[in-house]
UniProtKB/TrEMBL annotation:
Species: Lentibacter algarum
Swiss-Prot/TrEMBL cofactor(s): FMN
Catalytic machinery residues: 269
Protein name: L-lactate dehydrogenase (Cytochrome)
Species classification: Bacteria, Pseudomonadati, Pseudomonadota, Alphaproteobacteria, Rhodobacterales
Keyword Cell inner membrane: no
Length: 368
């Protein structure tokens, strides 16, 4: 079974679980603590019902959306994800090509496996650079300058990782970057020969954005020094759009808006950071209510279908970002698998729109 076997995100996950080493799958799939946060996120999304409408002409539908004044061919894009090349060799550039084809943003992670300059080139400009503030900020601001020089127009500051959350599944496997290969990992890789041989032929993934003189990145290094002064400095030095990702509090959202941030991304980091964090989809509605109808508000965390995308729009999102399900698809069927799942999500959303009397995502945002 490969790309042809993907008819839902769960299909992609099931195939990925079989193909990936346990260590890699649990790094991609795992959540914080006992993973009750992820379960609550899923339950909350499932609780949202859509309103079926009848006798409306929905024969002509569009999935196009508007994002910072530009038209995208889908109302969802690619969330920043670290070390995507673990799911499949060359995954970063597969995602970049997808972004270029559909004119959607590819969130390029600070810890991407491919240099940020190469990704935006392949994405034909359809890329946002996601930034972690780490240590004393020296390396952070070097990356901001690199992103500016590479032509990025949107910077996404991720603020919900002052310390890396404890994810027991990956800890049990001894997941570290760069890889430390011991007896347990050797057996794991030996039992997944397809992935291991591909990795051997293509070379093990690295954190490519830190292969520069005088700077080494430690994934576990504290990111706790970021403050409002950090944000203000970024606002002053970044001429393009500035988005803050990882917001789950109404008061914080209002503070960010007042500070001149161009957009907010409501997110729990896929429930990977704080197990007891509030449910993002519930906070999305509360933040929209307080921040106003016209302020750009984005969403990620737990999206598994096109209906989930539509649910997020009904709760106040202007745009939605897909995360680990795209890595499942990459692991299951490489680039063909990625495009197959993208088509599945698109079809699911289009059908859900027809069932609810909608012809465009703008039908929802226009009601605010």
């Amino acid at each position: 079974m490969s790309a042809s076997g993907i008819h839902s995100a769960e299909d992609a996950r099931r195939i990925a679980k079989r193909r990936l080493p346990w260590m890699v799958f649990d790094y991609i799939d795992g959540a914080a603590g006992r993973e009750t946060g992820a379960a609550r996120n899923r339950a909350a999304l499932d609780e949202i019902t859509l309103r079926p409408r009848i006798l409306r002409d929905v024969s002509s539908r569009s999935l196009a959306a508007t994002l910072f004044g530009a038209t995208t061919q889908r109302p969802f894009g690619i969330a920043p994800m670290g070390m995507c090349n673990l799911s499949a060799p060359g995954a970063d550039l597969m995602l970049a090509r997808l972004a270029a084809r559909y004119a959607v943003p590819h969130g390029v992670s600070t810890v991407a496996s491919t240099p940020l300059e190469k990704i935006i080139e392949v994405a034909e400009g359809h890329a946002w650079f996601q930034l972690y503030f780490t240590g004393d900020g020296t390396g952070t601001f070097k990356l901001v300058d690199r992103a500016k020089a590479a032509g990025y127009q949107t910077l996404v500051l991720t603020v919900d990782v002052p310390e890396v959350g404890r994810r027991p599944r990956e800890l049990r496997h001894g997941f570290k970057m760069p890889f430390k290969i011991g007896p347990k990992q050797f057996v794991d890789f030996a039992l997944h020969p397809r992935w291991s041989l591909n990795a051997l032929l293509k070379g093990k993934p690295t954190m490519a954005n830190f292969e520069m003189p005088g700077y080494e990145f430690d994934r576990t290094e504290s990111r706790a020094r970021a403050t409002c002064d950090t944000l203000n400095k970024l606002r002053e030095m970044w001429p393009g759009k500035l988005v803050v990702k990882g917001v789950l509090d109404v008061e914080d959202a209002l503070t960010l808006k007042a500070a001149g941030v161009d957009g907010i991304q409501v997110s729990s980091h896929g429930a990977r950071q704080l197990e007891s964090a509030p449910v993002p989809i519930e906070m999305l509605a509360k933040i929209r209510e307080q921040i106003g109808a016209d302020y750009p508000l984005f969403f990620d965390s737990g999206i598994r279908s096109g209906e989930d995308v539509l649910r997020a729009f009904t709760q106040g999102a202007d745009f939605v970002f897909l995360g680990r399900i795209l890595q499942y698809a990459l692991a299951a069927g490489h680039e063909r698998g990625l495009h197959k799942l993208w088509d599945v999500i698109s079809e699911e959303m289009s059908i859900a729109m027809a069932q609810t009397g909608l012809t465009s995502p703008k039908d929802i945002t226009g009601l605010r």
